[in-house]
Amino acid sequence: MKTNFFSELARLGISNCNMSFLLHKDNSMTVSLKVNHSAEDNALNVIPPLTFTYPINELDDGFFDAINQPIKNSVSLNDNIEAFEIATKEAQEKSKIAKAEKEKKDKIAKKAKDTFDKVKELIASEEFNFNDAKAVTKALNDLQSIKSTYPNSQEVILLINDIKSKQSQVDLFASDSNTLDAFNLDNQNS
User: Fold this and answer.
1) Domain ParB-related ThiF-related cassette protein E: where (predicted)?
2) Could you list the residue range(s) of the whole structural domain that residue 138 is in?
């Protein structure tokens, strides 16, 4: 006797299920089929097993036709929820990466702003000596290092020009041309 029972079962595309058969004395059978879902959503656990109790000859004739659509619906629901869970996890990972990148950019911008404010405050103080080439060079270097990351880069350029101007005014004849030439803004677009 050849049957196609397992071939028909495989054709349904159920990857994981539990089936139980209970043979009754009146020549009928109860068949229970429970699809095991792979998605993590516990809501799928409320789907009850598909249960039929019919005479054996009727089960032979129409069992697969009867279970085809409900099983496909259950498998489809599982697949949709599983795809949603995967997409949600990917979105969370991308969100974490984006958040980390934003925090990094914010940290760099804050450091640049702090440096800018510190240099601005330093040159505004009466103790700052524009004749001190090392101090001027350090201030200009600090400003150059933040020019590309500082959100208000125009302010940095203006402050650099202000430092150069004040240094030139302090001592026109003793200006350190190397210091000023190193910070020529005409050729910089960063």
Assistant:
1) 1-175
2) 125-187
